[in-house]
Amino acid sequence: MNIDIVVATTAATIQAGTPILFATLGEIITEKSGVLNLGVEGMMLIGAFCGFFITKITGNPYLGVLGGGIGAASLALLHAISVLIFQANQIVSGLALTILGTGLSNFWGTPFVGEKTLGFQKMDFIGLSKIPIIGDIFFKQDILVYFSYILPVIIWFLLDKTRLGLEIRAAGEFPEGARSSGLNVTFLRSLGILGGGFLTGIGGAYLSLAYTHIWTNGLVAGRGWIAVALVIFAFWNPFRAVIGAYLFGGIMAFQLSLQASGTQIPSSILLMLPYILTILVLTIASKTHKGSWGPMGLGINLEPKD
Amino acid sequence: MKIQIKKVYTQSKARSVLLAVVAVLLALSVSSLLLATLGKSPLSGIVIFLKSGFGSTYAFFDSLNKAIPLFLCAIALSISFKMQIWNIGGEGQYALGAIGATFVYLYFPNLPWYFLIPLMFTSSAILGGLFGVIPAILKVYFDANEIITTLMLNYVGILLIDYLVYGPWQDPTSLGFPMSVQFGENGTISTISNTPLYKTIYICIILGVLYKIFFQTTKIGYEIKVSGENENVARYSHIPRKKLIIFVLFLSGAICGIAGFTETVSTVGRLQPSVIAGYGYKAIIVAWLARLSTIGMGIFSYFLGAMLVGVEGLQLEMQVPEAYGMIIQGMILIFVVSFQFFEKYKISIKKE
User: Fold this and answer.
1) A180: in domain
2) How distant, in Å, are the alpha carbons of A280, A288, B80, B84 from that of B280?
3) Chain A residues whose beta carbon lies within 8 Å of the beta carbon of residue B169
4) What ipTM was estimated for this complex?
C-alpha cells in the first residue's frame, strides 16, 4: 500500500475522531459528577446547528464554536433542572433531551439545508508540521484538533488534581456522604452537566464547522451514542477516551476511503460498520470491566432532605 | 419564608393523571411559542394543530391508524421496562419486522392470503424477536449495557432496509426508486368497511388483552414484575434472571416486529424506507406517559397519533418543518418525567 494513502487515512482518522473525542470527554465529566446524560446525541446536534448558525451571522467560527458549546449547555441545563431539582429519572430525561435536540436542530436547520460555511480550515502547526509523516498526520489539522490534543490532559488535571475536581468526583461516588460533609451536591452536579454539555456542543460544532462545512439535518448520525458507549470503553478515563475516539475515527475514515475507491460493497453496509463496532467495543469493554461500573452514585438522584 | 419538601407515601391515581395532563399542556404551550422563532404565529399554530389533529372524523381515523404501530411498540417496550430492562431498540426491531413480512411475500407471492398473512406475521415476529435477543445475550453474558446496544441496532436495522430496497429487493420496474414490489391483495390487510381504519387494529386489541392477562395471571409475568421492582427479592426467590432477560427482550422485539408487520401490510403495502417513522422512539413516550398501564397506553397512543396528524396539518398549512413533532414529543417527555416529582413530594411554604 502506498505510504501517502496511509498518511492521508490516518490524518482523516484524527479528524473524524475529534468530534467524538469532545463528546466523550464531555460525558466523562458529567458522569464523574454522578449524572448519566443520554442526551449527548441531541446536544451534539444543537451544538452543530448553533455553531453553524452563529458562524453564518457573525462570520467568525470562533464565536460559532462558543455558540455551539453554549447552545448544547443550554439544552443540558434542562437535564440539570429535571434531574437535580425535579428528581426525574436520568435515563428518561436524557432520552427526552436527545429527542428534543434532534427536533430543534432539524426545525431550525431545515431552511439552511445545503448551505455552506467557511468554518475552520487546516493550518500547519509551526515547526511541528515539518516532521515527516508525524507532522503530516498530526500537525496539518485545524485549530480545534490541536485543542483536542491537550484537552484530555486538562480534564485529567481538573478532575484528579484540583479541589473542585475532587468535590465533583465525591458528588459522583458518594453523594450522601458528600452532602453530609457540607458539599453542595446539586451545584457540583450541575457543573458536571453544564461543563459536559459545553464540550459535547463543541464536538457537534466541529462537525458542521470543520468536518462537513455544510449544513445537513441529522449530521451527527449516532456519534453521540457512540460517545456514550466510549465512556464505558474508556472506563471514565480521559486518556483512554482518546484511543476510543480515534478507533471510531479510523473506521469512519476507512469507510470513506473505501467508498471513494469505488468498492463493490453497498454503502448502506459500509455505514453499518461504526454501529456494529460500537456494540463490539462495548461488549469487550464490559466483559473486562465486569463488576466495576464507574462512579458509584452514577444515575442515582440524591433525594432532597425533609 | 421557607420552602419545605416532604415525601408523600400515598399514591393517588387521580393526582397522577392530573399531573400528566398539566405536563402535556405545558409542553404544548412551550412548543407553540417556539413557532415564533421561525416567524410564525403561535396562536394560529395552536388552532391549526388542534383543528387538523382533532377536528374531523378523518383526523380521528388517521390518528387511530398511527396509534396502531405506536400501541404495539409501546406494549412491547413496556414488557422490558417492567423488568427495568431498557429496550430502546424498538425502531430496529420494527424494521426487522417489516423486513420479515416482505421476505415472506417476495418468496411466496402467490399463496392465498390465509396462508400468506399468518406466515408474514410469524416471520416478522421471529425476526424482530431475534433482533431483541442479540442485546439480551450481550447483556446476560458480557454485561453490555442494553440501552446502547439496542440503540445501535436501530441504525443497523434501518440501514438493512436501505440495503435491501436499493439492492436485492428493489422492484425492477420502480425506475430506481428505493422500494420493493407492491404487495398484492393476498399480502395486505385492508380497512374496515366504510372507514379508513385498518383491520390491523384488531391485532392491537388482541395483544393488549393478552398483555394484561400475561402480567395479571401468569407466573412468568409476575416474575418479570418482581425482578423489575426489587432485584434482591428476585434473587432470593430464585427467579432465573438471565433466562428472563432473554425471554423479555425476545418478546419485546417480537411485538415491535409485529408493529413493523402491521405498517408494512396496511398503510405502506411494500417495503420502502418510509416504513420507518420513528414509532419505536415515540412508543417510549407513550409507555412512560401511561406508566405501562394497558388502557393508558391505548389512550396515549391515540393522543400521540392525533398529535402527529396535527403536526402534518401544520406542515401543510404553515410550512412548519416536520421536525416540529419531535420538539413536542421531547418537551412532553421531559415535562412528564419532571412532574412526577409532585407525586412523590409535597411542597409547602412556611412562614418562620
Assistant:
1) yes
2) 23, 31, 13, 17
3) none
4) 0.92
